[in-house]
Specification:
453 residues, alpha/beta, Rossmann fold, 4 domains, 5-stranded parallel sheet, 20 helices, two-component regulatory system, transcription, Homeodomain-like_sf, transcription regulation, ATP binding
Length: 453
């Protein structure tokens, strides 16, 4: 956690600084707005605390113009309501009265650093993904995370970071699809003063901001192929060139990347560099869609119901049996993101002691209808077919064997008979999977039962 305090360090701000450092924050101090902007350009920060007496609107406008997305919190002596309102209207996210309350400072820091996108999973198909993620987390290998939109790729990336040797260093995320091509190079690599119109000062990019930590390149498939060449050099050499710069800058980062496209197919089409794909795809984590993770649906629904009840100051309520049935049977084409939005809406619409099926509605207010048995059969068939695409024969065979073993509660003899193979062949396969660190059901258990007790 990196905190920048802008304002002259009187007694109250010194106290705030000490409280923040006691909570593990690295604190930088600047006397005025311009000095604070220079610190942000040079080092970056996760949070800015600024004296309410300084021109906060000037600071917020400058951050917006330079695409610096660091949240700003105003602070001032006493409980001056007018000053607080003016600060919020100027663009501050919060107002903290001074002298500071240690618990309030801690709460603000926790709100900034806490990952609200909790990683919740229970399904056996996710267990394999999580096991592999944990296995490679402590290495510095690049990881490519793929899956449909809304499956939780960035959440998994943060999970890998928190279990890595860089967990106490910055985690910086760049959405390559949300930034125009003309600006993405500067966003990633930084720029020198005068490099282009609007470059009013030198500014570090996301590579330098993530130095020592992890850089996530979200939706990397949207990056222009010409910029991919510069990215490849940065990954290979661990040096970058700022836009308009003349001296290379060394960086020490671990790179994670996500995509909802098949990058091998994009490479064949010439829209993604094959050599960059090899550099990124040292380890591949494929997130299955929510419809292929049935055990996760109700687990996530319960999590979101609790989360949004707390966020809206509402007593937590369980889902009724009918609501649970409806949620479990819905196809969720928008994956976890759609489920989250639906449960947020349900928490607000529910009126009884439980969240009933009537509160489970689409964005336009229509009741969410359970699919017919025929529709569910079609969805299941389509999901099974989609599950094979882009996967190797060995991966499909492994999943078939492990799922069959789960079905047989770990009984090797029954599983071998269903699969049409000898018990010896089955045991050899299971030994291979165990040696590779892949969970295998013990007799009398499924992998999920073994994991959850």
């Amino acid at each position: 956690m990196r905190l920048l305090i802008i304002g002259r360090l009187n007694g109250e701000l010194v106290t705030a600084s000490r409280i923040a450092m006691s909570r593990g924050a690295a604190v930088t101090q600047a006397d005025g707005i311009e000095q604070g902007l220079n610190a942000l350009r040079a080092k970056g920060a996760d949070l800015v605390m600024v004296d309410v007496a300084l021109p906060i609107r000037t600071l917020v406008t400058a951050l917006t113009d330079e695409r610096i997305r660091t949240p700003v919190v105003a602070c001032g002596t006493g409980t001056d309501a007018k000053a607080a309102v003016a600060a919020i209207q100027a663009g501050a996210k919060e107002y903290i009265p001074l002298p500071p309350d240690p618990e309030l400072i801690a709460a603000v820091l926790e709100a900034v650093t806490a990952d609200a996108r909790a990683f919740v999973w229970r399904d056996a198909s996710m267990e394999r993904v999580v096991k592999l993620a944990e296995q490679v987390a402590r290495s510095d290998a690049s990881v490519l995370i793929t899956g449909e939109s809304g499956t939780g790729k960035e959440v998994l990336a943060r999970y890998v970071h928190t279990r890595s040797n860089r967990a106490n260093k910055p985690f910086v995320s760049v959405n390559c699809a949300a930034i125009p091509d003309a600006l993405l190079e500067s966003e990633l690599f930084g720029h020198e003063k005068g490099a282009f119109t609007g470059a009013v000062a030198r500014r570090i990019g996301r590579f330098e901001e993530a130095n020592g930590g992890t850089l996530l390149l979200d939706e990397i498939s949207e990056m222009d192929v010409r910029l991919q060449a510069k990215l490849l050099r940065a990954l290979q050499e661990r040096v970058i060139d700022r836009v308009g710069g003349t001296q290379p800058v060394k960086v020490d980062i671990r790179v994670l990347a996500t995509s909802n496209r098949n990058l091998a197919e994009e490479a064949r089409k010439g829209t993604f560099r094959e050599d960059l794909l090899y550099r990124l795809n040292v380890v591949h984590l494929r997130l299955p869609p929510l419809r292929d993770r049935p055990s996760d649906i109700l687990e996530l629904a319960g999590h979101f119901a609790r989360k949004y009840a707390e966020a809206n100051g509402i007593a937590p309520r369980p889902l009724s049996a009918e609501a649970r049935r409806l949620v479990a049977q819905s196809p969720w084409p928008g994956n976890v993101r759609e489920l989250e939005n639906t449960l947020h809406r349900a928490v607000l619409l529910a009126s009884g002691p439980e969240i009933d099926a009537d509160a489970i509605r689409s964005p336009d207010g229509e009741a969410l209808a359970a699919p017919s048995p025929a529709a569910r059969a079609v969805q299941a068939a389509e999901a099974a077919t989609r599950g094979f695409v882009g996967r190797s024969l060995a991966e499909v065979e492994r999943d078939l064997i492990l799922d069959t073993l789960d079905h047989c509660l770990g009984n090797r003899t029954h599983a071998a008979k269903i699969l049409g193979i000898s018990i010896r062949t089955l045991r050899n396969k299971l030994n291979e999977y165990t040696d590779a660190g892949i969970p295998v059901a013990e007799p009398g258990h499924t992998r999920a039962l073994a994991a959850y007790g």
